[in-house]
TrEMBL record, chains A, B:
Gene3D superfamilies: 3.30.465.10, 3.30.70.2740, Vanillyl-alcohol Oxidase, Chain A, domain 4. It comes from the Bacteria. The lineage of its organism: Bacteria, Bacillati, Actinomycetota, Actinomycetes, Micrococcales. This is FAD-binding oxidoreductase. Residues 34-213 form the FAD-binding PCMH-type domain. The keyword Oxidoreductase applies. It holds the Pfam family FAD_binding_4. Keywords: FAD, Flavoprotein, Oxidoreductase. Transmembrane segments: none annotated. It comes from Brevibacterium otitidis. The keyword Flavoprotein applies. Its cofactor is FAD.
Length: 465, 465
């Protein structure tokens, strides 16, 4: 591979061949995902760098793995053997905030939280808030269609993309999507790139639609001796026509881990907890009414207690506790043999009660591992975690079995194998199980149409179809 | 063409060869769009009828023109020579309303307004409200990504589609989209079919996401001696972070036509009017505040008068007046030589002021025609109408020139040739002008991947790329 040819086309210092640096950039946060040996790393400083890299890759038929902040959980950003890693993390400028159009235009490397902060002074908001909000980039969020806690009311990344500038496999550049708030001129190709995990092109510029700053919410927690009753509460509450701005679930084991991780003061000895917020779209009265409805439903569903707070400090602490489930799980894993597999099934709300029961059956079937469960209950998006001793091969294999059984359960209950974490390496065989043969064939035809040499992130999302 | 073969595969009576009926079904509402001579009409009563028709068409390489309620304005549903017209209008059942999931599942022939009515008893709403709301079908709305008056706050059809069942060109059937509220398993292929105007497949079932019933709005009108000041009002108002639930524009000529059509009592002698609604998401206080902000902005932008009403009857009358612009234009056209071309450009809000000025220049350049303008000002989606004497060839040619000049202007101002009416026959050459060569090529590759024989609605949206 004549890397000197590529170096000559790139910004100074963009091509990295230092093996240690390449190793650092060779993986994201996924476990159990193959990490290949990359040939080199391109730290793109410009759109031209991205184009030059893809022209070179096409000319020499070299695989390219596009990368954002590498905070993904599915291995989509992991190196494949002989590839060029292409990170756009340095392209991190906010190019425009347009208050008349209520949009902003950003480079892909902008960190989600940085964008949120920058929008505050304009009274505008970009809602999507994945768990990685403080460290993941907008480009990666778009490439994976990131979700978060706000989705039950405010939708996912896809819902905020007006248009994208993308570089295709051969280095050609184009803008897809609408120039304006409405637009139906041709096929909506931007939506094809959103969530495509680097398999169709590299996103180099993004225009997002914004909404007015979100009003402060009222927060409530409801505690349940039985987890299944939390599921019933979610269903009955949503069936009142509710629009909570957050509706999160923690089971007892998750609450214990969080308490062990930090001074969050969550109640102990409970089966489950719901954390719900309503902002009433700015109306305290509407928020209070909605929380009243929640309280009545929770009581009717055997809640042990329902507690409210309008104090933003209380709200923040509770949300911080919910967000701590990630690092708390890490701490728990480290104390229990190191292994942790985070799942991400999404099921219809009405099937959550059954999901909880069946998860208990899995716990009984796999006593060698520990399974906790937390998630975005308002969406039916569940993140069961399987903890295991990774030093033990048998236990590790059982953990993977349990992880797979959770996905099988998700499919059985009419859901999906991934609500927001993506497919990547981790779930590519499961994607083939979820999609029917006709849709699988469509995926491959479209991939072939846009990346005929198959150089973009090969062997990942579409690798088992 | 062995139609008897096809008849044997279809529901009784589904195949129609009566020439008069075929002629009736051979066109939509577009003007200046070629109408071909269809070979036959299939009035599908079931998914199986659709599949059988497409299998037959593939076997014999016969073009198929999928049709909904044929209320489109771009000729997308017009017959092409030798085609099978395939209407799904008879497949018009609401299959499920799921209050826990806040979704509904419908057949494509369900009329938009009928769905809205059916959802009321569940306290749920499906917002998209194209001008054709009372007569257009959900399938057609999805196939064209229909918009309407609500879009400034509530988005377009695309924003409400959870998943679609589609029959492909070869008769194979599949479901695309997510089973659940969140889902990132594979490429989001449903979004490719939305707005594809029958060029990629036939939509036979649709699951829509719903929201709680919309609260009653406060309505205001602002009157402006100068149209350009209405444009400035829209920009300055939106820049306050406003979320009006409706923000419509009528110019003086449009207001005159509406008054001439019915007893709506719109003021006369004005340059323009804005019709704005705010529902404050259910909070009267929030709505009142937002309308206060609108009033202050309009006053600062030289409004002659701003009038409010909380009375639903007043609101309905004003919205009815706005909705009457279509039939009012028809009446006006009939009295002025019969010709009317309705345009549909969408531009950034900030360019609307310039658009109005440039439209005046077009009026001066084409004195043989009459140009009025109305539209969804909150979106920048403008519907200028060109009225002309269709009995006169020269005038007709000039009218088409003026129509084209409006699209050129839309593109020049950073907008699109179609905000919501679609491409069809009418604008296919203009689509080629709007899209860059790379995006044009992507369209053709995707079309070829999904419809390799090119039998689905040939010569329409993608016909000039």
């Amino acid at each position: 591979m004549p890397l000197e040819e590529l170096a000559a086309e790139l910004s100074a210092g963009a091509l990295v061949t230092d093996r240690d640096v390449i190793t650092t950039y060779s993986k994201d946060w996924a476990l159990f995902s193959h990490v290949g040996r990359a040939a080199a790393l391109v730290r793109a400083a410009s759109v031209e760098d991205v184009q030059a890299t893809l022209r070179f890759a096409t000319a020499h038929r070299i695989p390219v793995v596009p990368q954002g902040a590498r905070t993904g959980l599915s291995g989509a950003a992991n190196a494949v053997d002989g590839c060029l890693l292409l990170t756009v993390a340095r392209m991190n400028r906010i190019l425009e905030v347009n208050t008349v159009e209520q949009t902003c235009t950003v480079q892909p490397g902008v960190i989600n939280q940085d964008l949120k902060e920058a929008l505050k002074q304009h009274g505008l908001a970009y809602p999507p808030d994945p768990g990685s909000v403080a460290i993941s980039s907008i480009g990666g969020n778009v490439a994976t269609n990131a979700g978060g806690l706000c989705c039950v009311k405010y939708g996912v990344t896809r819902d905020y993309v007006r248009n994208l500038t993308v570089v295709l496999a051969d280095g050609q550049i184009t803008r897809v999507g609408r120039p304006t708030q409405k637009g139906v001129a041709g096929l909506e190709l931007s939506q094809l790139f959103i969530g495509s995990e680097g398999t169709l092109g590299v996103i180099v510029e993004i225009t997002l639609e914004l909404i007015p700053a979100l009003p402060d919410p009222i927060t409530a927690i409801a505690l349940f001796p039985e987890a299944a009753d939390a599921a019933s509460t979610v269903c009955d509450f949503m069936a009142t026509g509710a629009r909570p701005s957050m509706l999160e679930y923690l089971d007892g084991p998750s609450m214990d881990m969080i308490n062990d991780y930090g001074d969050f003061g969550l109640p102990t000895g409970m089966g489950a907890m719901l954390l719900v917020q309503s902002n009433g779209d700015g109306s305290l009265e509407a928020a209070t009414q909605e929380m009243g409805a929640f309280s009545r439903v929770a009581d009717a569903c055997n809640a042990a207690e329902v507690v409210f707070s309008e104090d933003p400090a209380d709200s923040e602490l509770l949300v911080a506790a919910r967000r701590a489930v990630g690092p708390a799980g890490e701490k728990f894993a480290n104390a229990h043999g190191g292994g942790e597999l985070i799942d991400d099934v999404c099921i219809p709300r009405a099937r959550m009660r059954e999901f909880f029961t069946r998860l208990d059956e899995l716990r009984a079937a796999y006593p060698q591992v520990i399974i906790s469960n937390a998630g975005h209950a308002g969406d039916g998006n569940m993140h069961p975690c399987v903890f295991f001793d990774e030093r033990d091969e048998t236990t590790t294999a059982l953990a993977q079995e349990a992880f797979d059984a959770i996905m099988a359960l998700g499919l059985e209950l009419g859901g999906t194998i991934t609500g927001e974490h993506g497919v990547g390496y981790l779930k590519k065989e499961w994607l083939a199980r979820e999609l029917d043969p006709v849709t699988r064939a469509m995926h491959l035809k479209i991939k072939d149409a846009l990346d005929p040499l198959g150089i973009l992130n090969p062997g990942k999302m579409l690798g088992a179809l």
